[in-house]
Sequence to fold (421 residues):
Amino acid sequence: MRGSRVVCSAFCLALLGWSAGADIAAAQSLPQLLSEADVHNPEILAARSAWQAARQVPSQVSTLPDPQVELQSFSVGGPLPYQGFSTSNFAYIGLGVTEDLPYPGKLRLRGQIASQQAAALEQDYHAVERRVAAQVETEYYRLGYLHQVQITLQADQKLLHEIEQVAEARYTQGSGNEQDVLKAQLNETKIVDQLATNQQDVGSAQALLKAILNRLPQSPDLAVGPLQETPLPESQSELLALARTQNPAVKAWQASALARSSQVKLAHKDFYPDFSISYMYQRTDPSRYRAYYMLTFGVKLPIFRARRQEPELAEAVAQRAQAQQQQQAATQQSGGAVQAAYVHVQTGTRVLRIYKQGLIPQAQATFQAGLAAYQTGREDFETLLNAFLDLQNLNLEYWSTLAQRETALAQIEQLTPLSLH
Fold:
């Protein structure tokens, strides 16, 4: 029958995830959008710049301070330079250099701290990359789901129109009633409202995805490909191990904890003195007097330990403890989030199988049988309408479950080094 053929084609169209050929031709793949986000997303660019800036710090802080060059003029008998230069052996012109020398090991520790802080910022950068990628995937699957909702609702709208025509024909022939026609029209209006709401949600998802990709709001809308179920090859234990050891957020706190430990070592070093060395060459009238050579060695004594070095050490120890606790917290949170996402994926896989192999085919068969029975007067319209709504809801729930499953996979990708899509 005509109605049965419409149901089959609508269901197959929704299950395969295809729409008009022009939409598929214009669709952008998820890898393309992820690459675009990596190049243009402002958060990623800012995190990358922060890391690149931090990479320039270690050589700066591990290098000796710049030497200080001095030019002296010691005059005798008057304030002007060179006065008494040829008449007094006290007058001279001097040229010297001074270099500050931190206590041995301090420069190395400062460079080590800067390198570890740069490593932490590198992991922060990778964490931002993964978070933005998860946002792209979430909006991508949201758009994919909304696209499938539009396909399903449009097919159901067409089908309801045909059901309405059948109800009108029965009413005209005297075998039906006007209430059946009105119910069909009411449900058609509901679908129109659902389509309008769906279009509003599409606009919201398009705006969010464009913002993530750093596209102009008025740029053309993005078209996405059909939603597909992605396999999850890794076991739960493997994912947990990856999340606890390879998650960029965990590794960032690990590098930060190492930097804080080095900071504690540097704070201990600050209890020891720093030094300075100076060398001065002094020249009087070379025809009458000999030159002078002066070597000076200075020591900077840390005598205010109770007010400076001891609080510095206490601060470094507290910051080290904070970083270690943050690392532990990030590890636990990462493991818990991966476990929850894995359960979501596994549950979604089972539910999708039930939908595809049981519920949707059964609902489709029930509706087809009900439509045939209604056309011959063997079933009332209310039963047919309930069968239609059951099939519609199952189709929509199938796509919602698939989108949620793929979003959970995106969360796993954010927390592990895996690329699953």
The two ends are 41 Å apart (CA to CA). Confidence is low (pLDDT under 50) at residues 1-25.
